[in-house]
Amino acid sequence: MIHRLISQLFLLLAVLSVSACANDVQGDLPNQKAVQTTKIDTFATPSLPAPAALDATPMQSFPDWLANFKAEAKAKGIKESTLSAATPYLTINETVLKLDQQQPEFTQTFWTYLDKRLSEIRIQAGKLQIFRYQSLLAQIQTDYGLPPEILVSFWGLETNYGTYLGNFSTLEALTTLAYNPRRSSFFRKELLAALNIIDRGNIDAKDMVGSWAGAIGQMQFMPTVYLKHALDADHDNKADLWHSTTDALTSAAAYLKQAGWQPNQPWLQEVSLPNNFDYALADGKTDVPLKQIKALGIQPAGGASWQNNDDSSVILLLPAGHEGPAFIAWSNFKVIKRWNNSNNYAIAVGLMAQRLATDYRLSIKAPKDNKPWPKTFILQLQNTLTALGYDTGGSDGWFGNRSMQALRNFQRDNGLPADGYPNNETLKKLDLSL
Ligand code: CA
Fold first, then answer.
1. For residue 200, how far is its CA from the centre of ligand 1 (angstroms)?
2. Which residues contact 116 (CB under 8 A, 6 or more apart)?
3. How many whole angstroms separate alpha carbon 212 and alpha carbon 224?
4. If you measure from the C-alpha of residue 5 to the centroid of ligand 1, how many angstroms do you get, rounded to a whole number?
5. For residue 417, which of 310, 243, 273 has the smallest C-alpha distance?
6. Could you tell me the distance, in angstroms and rounded to a whole number, from the CA of residue 197 to the centre of ligand 1?
7. What average pLDDT score do residues 226-233 get?
8. Ligand 1 centroid to residue 188 C-alpha, Å
9. CA 14 to ligand 1 centroid distance, Å
10. Per-residue pLDDT tens for 39-70?
11. What is the distance in A from the centroid of ligand 1 to the CA of 202?
12. pLDDT tens digits, residue range 74-131?
C-alpha cells in the first residue's frame, strides 16, 4: 500500500514538474503583497493600493543609479565579494518591465479564480505531499500550531509544491523594478535584502531565481520577509528556501504563527443563509458575533456543526454573490490574508485545506458558463451605474469596492438581493449582458 502510494507520488510529481503551473507568474505575488499590481483580485480585494503612485525621485541614468545603489549597499555592510558576484545580475530585464506594465484584460470571478487554482491534480498531489512529509508536518504542528493541510495548501498555491519557483534572476528583477520610478523605494529595499541573503551565504547570486516581481523560494517570500522569517530548520547552516523543503515549510509556519495563527481554531466554514437574508451584512469585512449569526438563522452548510462554538466574531463572505456559496471566516482567515491580502486567495487556501484534510466539497457547484469579466464589460457596467446616479468612483474597468457598493445600492433600490454582484438578474435590470 505504502509502496503504491509512493510510486504514485513520484509519478504525480513527474507530471507536475512537466506541467509546472505557470499560472501564478502574474497571479499571486507573495506575502507582503503591498506591491501587488495585478488586478486579478480586484473584485475580492477592493483594498488593494493604487499601483501607479510615482516615487518622487527623478529618473537618473541607469549607470548613475547603479553606482549610487552600490555605494548604499556597501555603506549598509554588504561585502565587496557579494557585490562583485552580484554585479552581472544588477541589470535591466526588459521582460520584467513589460510584465510590470501589463494590465490584465479580465477581472477573475470567484469561480474562475478557484477553478484555476484548485485543480483535481493539485489536490491529489497535495494529499500525497501530506503523506510524504507527515513527520516533518507533525513536528511543525507541534512547534508552531499550523495544521499540515494549511501549510501544504500555501505551498501548492504558491509554487505547486516547490516544482515551480520562477525562473527570473531575482537580482535582475529587483534591479529593474528598483530603477523604475514607479515603486522604486519599495523595490530598492527588497534588492538590498536580496543582497543580504546572498551575503549571509544562503544562496549564490547566480542561483537566486524567482518570480518576475522578486518573490523567492518554495513559499515565494519577498526578500525582506525572507530575511526576517527564513529558518534553517534542517541545520545545514543555510536558510535555503529554494532547495530545502524542511526550511521552506518551517519558515512559512513560523511566519504564520507570528502573524497570529491560533492553533486548533478554524479558518473558514461554509454556511447556508436563511430566506430574506439582508445581503448588506455579507460585505466581507464587518465583524459579526457568532451569536448574532446564529440568531439570524444562518446554519452550517450540509448539516455540519459549527467548527467553533465560543463567542468569537466572524466575517460573512459571499464571494460569488447570493447565488454562490456563503462562508463565515474565523480569525485565522485574517492571518491567511496577511500572507496575501485577497479574499479569493484566502478562500482558496482555506477550501483547499479542507479538501486535503476531509475532502470537503462546496454545497454549490460552479455555474457552467462561468467566465472572467472583460474590462470592457466592467467599464460598461460602471458607466451605466454612473449615468443612473450611482457613484462608482469613476470608470476604470476594474470592479472594486466603490463599484460594488454602487451596484448594491442599485440592487437595493430595485428590489434585488443587494449582494453587489453583477448576476444575470441585475444585468437584465441594467439592460446589460456579459
Ligand atoms: Ca537549511
1. 12
2. 23, 27, 108
3. 16
4. 27
5. 273
6. 13
7. 97
8. 27
9. 24
10. 333 232 233 334 444 555 557 899 999 999 99
11. 8
12. 999 999 999 999 999 999 999 999 999 988 888 889 999 999 899 999 999 999 999 9
Q: Which residues contact 301 (CB under 8 A, 6 or more apart)?
A: 269, 270, 271, 272, 325, 326, 363
> How many residues in the chain?
434
- 3-state DSSP: the chain helix, strand, coil percent, rounded to 5? 50, 5, 40
Q: Are strands 106-107 and 209-210 parallel, antiparallel or unpaired?
A: unpaired
Gap from CA of 84 to ligand 1 centroid (Å): 25
**Ligand 1 center to residue 418 CA distance, Å?**
52
What is the residue extent of each domain of the chain? 268-358, 375-429
Amino acid at residue number 72: E
Identify residues whose C-beta is under 5 A from ligand 1, the ion.
232, 234, 236, 238, 240, 244, 247
Cα-to-centroid distance, 134 and ligand 1 (Å): 19
Residues 6+ apart with CB under 8 A from 388: 410, 430
Q: How far is CA 245 from CA 14, 251, 267, in A?
A: 17, 10, 24
Distance 345 CA to ligand 1 centre (A): 28
Q: 165 CA to middle of ligand 1, Å?
A: 17
Q: How far is the CA of 27 from the centre of ligand 1 (A)?
A: 28
How many angstroms separate the Cα of 337 from the Cα of each of 143, 216, 250, 262, 405?
22, 19, 19, 14, 22
CB 242 within 8 A of CB 203: yes
Distance 247 CA to ligand 1 centre (A): 6
* Cα-to-centroid distance, 243 and ligand 1 (Å): 9
Domain 268-358, CATH among 3.90.550.10, 2.30.110.10, 1.10.530.10, 3.90.226.10: 1.10.530.10
Q: How far is the CA of 252 from the centre of ligand 1 (A)?
A: 14
Distance separating alpha carbons of residues 190 and 216, to the nearest angstrom: 11
For 20, the grid coordinates are 509546472
**Greatest C-alpha distance within the chain:** 69
